[in-house]
Amino acid sequence: MAQPIELPLPQDYDLDERYVLRVTAISATTGAVVAGVNVGDVTFMVDNLTGGNLASGTFGPFMLVPGPGA
Amino acid sequence: MASEPVRSTAVVAAPKDYSIPGAQQIRLLSVRASFIDNGAASDWVPALELLDNNGNVLATAGDKGVTVTAGSSADVTWFPGVKTAGAASTGTGAAWFWATRNTNFTVTTATPQRRIPWTHFVTSDPTVFSVTTGLAANDTVNGLKAGIYYASSQVSWASPQTYPHSTAIVTDFFGVSGLSSSPVSDSTTDTTPVGESQVIHDTMLAITQAVPGEISLTVKNWDASNHNVVQALYAIMYLPNSTLVT
Q1: For residue B149, which of B121, B178, B120 has the smallest C-alpha distance?
Q2: pTM of whole model > 0.80?
Q3: Do residues B80 and B116 make contact, with C-beta atoms less than 8 angstroms apart?
Q4: Which of A54, A62, A68 sits opposite B21 (nearest CB)?
Q5: pLDDT by residue for chain B (246 residues), tens digit each?
Q6: Which of B3, B4, B18, B67 to probe the A interface (max A CBs under 10 A)?
Q7: Cα–Cα distance measured from residue B223 to residue B165, given in angstroms and rounded to the nearest whole number
Q8: DSSP 3-state of B16
Q9: Which residues pair with B155 in a beta bridge?
Q10: Which residues of A touch B41 (CB under 8 A)?
Q11: DSSP B42
Q12: Alpha-carbon distance A42 to A65, whole Å?
């Protein structure tokens, strides 16, 4: 059975189009991604500030493409 | 404005990203994610990163005190207001282990020294202690983290105790027994001078030189006939310390 863990979330972040939410497993000492960890079921509870279709967002992993003005 | 879930069940190697669609804006309320071990190279910290549209990391929500042991899986929830108790949730603080057996355990002459197979065991932190199977189910106690282990045991053999028998805590760690082995833990008498049935004990102070390692309770039947252990009690205290003895 998986170990349950609770962590704090930054509050009052309004995130715009093309921003990325990344669920990852990192080293406590280097911050680098640790190989050999899979991420399965992910659920974000959000306030939909624009009322559009959030399901059209893409789930990765994928290479980030810099947006306008990069 | 309505709150709604955005969900993906696909299993991918970390990291798993969600890109907010064009012309949309959200306020993040909570996140839940299932992490599944697939041969992790080392212990790891679950983290949620927020990146802008240029790939710049705006925030990392994680706690280096909340570490998942390599080989373990975790279901992680992020929500505002959580006060991390890193020591309690990941075993980086003090921890305890408790085990009992109150049913007869026969120690035969064929295998006169045996680990006690526990019928009941609990721990405050399964990332510090585990119980595995050797010759019998649940007979091997393991310390999984670097630090100091202090173990204490109590064993009763079947009466009349007119046969030689003993008990000893054994460990892979660097350990020192706190009690003399005779006459307290090695007896051929039935009762003490005041007529009470004799209970034997051992203690062990162990310091880790490598982890994981075993710290189990054994008994030995020195007689030419089979005899039963009728009760065994075992408690271990763990204090964390990352320095391994050399």
Answers
A1: B178
A2: no
A3: no
A4: A54
A5: 678 899 999 999 999 999 999 899 999 999 999 999 888 888 999 999 999 989 998 888 888 778 898 888 999 999 888 776 543 344 458 999 999 999 999 999 999 999 999 999 999 999 999 999 999 999 999 999 999 999 999 999 998 888 888 899 999 999 998 765 544 444 555 555 555 567 888 999 999 998 999 999 999 998 999 999 999 999 999 999 877 777
A6: B18
A7: 7
A8: strand
A9: B200, B232
A10: 34-36
A11: S
A12: 22
A41, amino acid identity = D
Asked if residue A46 lies in contact with residue B3, where contact means CB atoms within 8 angstroms, the answer is yes
Between CA B218 and CA B107 the distance in angstroms is: 11
Inter-chain touch B82–A6, beta carbons under 8 Å: yes
Residue (of A18, A22, A34, A29) closest to A69 by Cα position: A18
Based on C-alpha coordinates, what's the Rg of chain A? Answer: 15
Q: Where are the alpha helices (DSSP H) in chain B?
A: 86-90
Please state the ipTM of this predicted complex. 0.82
State how far the Cα of B6 lies from the Cα of A55, in Å rounded to an integer: 6
Tell me whether residues B17 and A62 touch, CB distance under 8 A: yes
Tokens matching residue B165: 């028998």
**Closest among A41, A5, A40 to B69, alpha carbons compared:** A5
- A60 and B10: CB-CB below 8 Å? no
Token code pair at residue B174: 């660097």
Q: Which of B9, B67, B13 is nearest to A38 (CA)?
A: B13
CA B174/CA B206 separation, integer angstroms: 5
CA distances from B95 to B61, B88, B92 (A): 26, 9, 8
Find residue B229's DSSP bridge partners.
B105, B157
Which residues neighbour B70 within 8 Å (Cβ) at sequence distance 6 or greater? A36, B37, B40, B41, B42, B43, B44
A8 is written with which tokens? 């704090």
